[in-house]
Amino acid sequence: MCHQKNDSCIKHDSEIQGCGCSEQKAPRLLQPFILLALKEKESYGYELIEKVSDFRFHNHPPDIGAIYRNLRNMEKEGWVKSRWDTKGPGPAKRIYRITPQGEEILHGWAITIQKRKEALDQFLRIYKNYYEKGSKHERR
Question: What is 4-131's CATH topology?
Answer without folding.
Answer: Arc Repressor Mutant, subunit A (1.10.10)
